[in-house]
């Protein structure tokens, strides 16, 4: 057994498809986040998706149910899907970090997520790399700063480049058949926290519309 917090690479199976990865991730001990999470939450969607959307980490609802984007942020994302012509069944949804990092809550209340550290993101990135290699999307949509920095570098600012189609970075080692483009936008959870929620939603929806139009 690899040492704890050595990173996920040693736990990622060398063969098999997405189902093999989804099973293997439950045994991952690449960082300490597995200790308090209910389960790992792996990506879901079409294995041939042209668009792969990646967020930060599962939230409270996702940790309990075991599926990505099923909580309040997921409902905001589903609304944007309906209004831009994207379909959840046709895309692939995942997170950079597969275990829920949170602050314990009072009984009966939702646990509040804590931002994963840079070390935790690095430890978990081999799972995302494996997903990208198997799905081979044309376009990756980064939902929020954590996902954007994981793919585009620590100096990347979503506030300066959101909604813009960029070349997928060669530094993210996927071989010759990596995605063509990447687009960064905010995480749908930030829409729910915005002072003007509807305006924030419309900006978010417009970013997803750019993504939808990019793949025709």
UniProtKB/TrEMBL annotation:
UniProt keyword Zinc, yes or no: no
Protein name: Type-4 uracil-DNA glycosylase
Domain Uracil-DNA glycosylase-like: 42-209
Keyword match Nucleus: no
CDD domains reported for this sequence: UDG-F4_TTUDGA_SPO1dp_like
Gene3D superfamilies referenced in this protein's UniProt entry, alphabetically: Uracil-DNA glycosylase-like domain (3.40.470.10)
UniProt KW keywords: 4Fe-4S, DNA damage, DNA repair, Hydrolase, Iron, Iron-sulfur, Metal-binding
Similarity comment: family membership: Belongs to the uracil-DNA glycosylase (UDG) superfamily. Type 4 (UDGa) family.
């Amino acid at each position: 057994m690899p040492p704890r917090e050595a990173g996920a690479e040693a736990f990622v199976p060398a063969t098999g498809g997405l189902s093999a990865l989804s099973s293997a991730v439950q045994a991952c001990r690449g960082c300490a986040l597995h200790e308090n999470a209910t389960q790992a939450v792996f990506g879901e969607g079409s294995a041939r998706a042209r668009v792969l959307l990646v967020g930060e980490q599962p939230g409270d609802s996702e940790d309990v149910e075991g599926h990505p984007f099923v909580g309040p942020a997921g409902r905001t994302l589903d609304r944007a899907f309906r209004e831009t012509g994207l379909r959840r069944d046709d895309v692939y949804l995942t997170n950079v970090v597969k275990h829920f990092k949170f602050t314990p809550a009072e009984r009966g209340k939702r646990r509040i997520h804590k931002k994963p550290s840079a070390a935790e993101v690095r430890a978990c990135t081999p799972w995302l790399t494996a997903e990208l290699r198997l799905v081979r999307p044309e376009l990756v949509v980064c939902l929020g700063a954590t996902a954007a920095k994981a793919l585009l570098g620590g100096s990347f600012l979503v506030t300066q480049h959101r909604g813009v189609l960029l070349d997928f970075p060669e530094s993210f080692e996927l071989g010759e058949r990596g995605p063509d483009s990447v687009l960064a936008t905010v995480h749908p959870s930030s829409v729910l926290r915005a002072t003007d929620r509807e305006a924030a939603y419309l900006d978010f929806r417009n970013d997803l519309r750019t993504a939808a139009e990019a793949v025709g």
